[in-house]
Amino acid sequence: MINSADLVRQSNPHDSVDHANEDIESLKKRIPVRDVMQIHCVTATPEENPAVVAQRMKDKGVTCVVVVEAQQVVGVLTQMNLLRQLSDKGHGISDGTVGDCMSNSVLSVYPHQTLWDATELMEQHHVKRLPVIEEGRLVGIVTQTDLIRALFACGSFKEVNAIMVRDVATLTPQASVVKAIETMAQQGLSCLVVIEGERPIGMVTERDILELIATQQNPETLQVQDIMTSPLITIDSRYSVHSAACLMDQKHIHRLVIEDDGVLKGVITRTDIFVAALKNLEMEKAMAAAYQEIKKVESQLIQNEKLASIGQMAAGVAHEMNTPVGFVSSNFQTLRKYMDHFLELFKMYEELGSAVEDGAKERRLEILQGIHATRNRMKIEFILDDIGQLFDDSQEGLERVTAIVQNLRNFSRVDQVDAVSEYDMNQGIESSLMVARNAIKYDADVELDLGSVPVIQGNGGQINQVILNICVNAAQAIKGQEREDRGTIKLRTFVDGDFVVCEIKDDGPGIAPEHLKKVFDPFYTTKPVGVGTGLGLSVSHDIIVNKHKGQLLVATEMGQGTTFTIKLPLQNDVAPVESILVENVC
Question: In this predicted structure, what is the pLDDT of residue 92?
Answer without folding.
Answer: 58
